[in-house]
Amino acid sequence: MQAWVIGNWKQNPATNHDVNALLDNLLTAVNTEEQVVKNSCRLMVAPSCIHLAAVSARLKDTSVLCAAQDISAHSANTGAYTGDCSAQQVADAGATWTILGHSERRQYHQETHECLLQKLTHALTQNLGVVFCIGETQAQYDDKQTLAVIDTQLSVVKDLLAQQPELAASLSERLIIAYEPVWAIGTGKVPTVAEVSTTHQHIKQTVTGFAESLEAMTVLYGGSVNVDNADSFAADPMIDGALVGGASLKADSFLMIANAFSRALG
What global pTM score does this model have? Predict the structure, then answer.
């Protein structure tokens, strides 16, 4: 079994110079000091679209994968959609995965069920793997609606399989679920490991209900993951890795989180 540690750089860094400096530090660490990571923990980073081609080119012959942060819902390839980047375009730029459904996209861009279903379909059509983000708000958490919210968000996957049942056989290798409580992203608030473990178990049981082949689905935790709490999350067998925000912008902290999951796997 392998863990996954994915760095979502969001709208960072600001310049090509800073992107290259971050990559220099990351690749030096991976290639010299962190051999254990390559063996038991897959690494991936998701730069902003403007830096995607340059980052993917530098990562091409390394063990670190490159993902886009989003793709267009309107077309898988080309069209009159100003400002959008299609699945085909980001794949051509070198990405092999894309993040979809992040809470910031849901909040600021009002992404709906139908929008995300289209994006999932386009990504898989263009042979992109998908890191699909789900999670509840603070109010929903307080009202004990977490599992109900997650069920609603996961229904996108259920509908995808209803439309394309042939995907079931390979989807566990092409889709990663990232559970990110909205109230924990960038806030320093963190759910307990027991809460995350229970939620991950529910996610795995739910997707297995869609198709038995999804029993091996990888489920990551995201939301204020850092070097201080990574070991406790890594120790739980229900948590298959982490989607990391701010801590991924420094190579040392990103690799320390990866090493926590590597150690947990022995």
Answer: 0.97
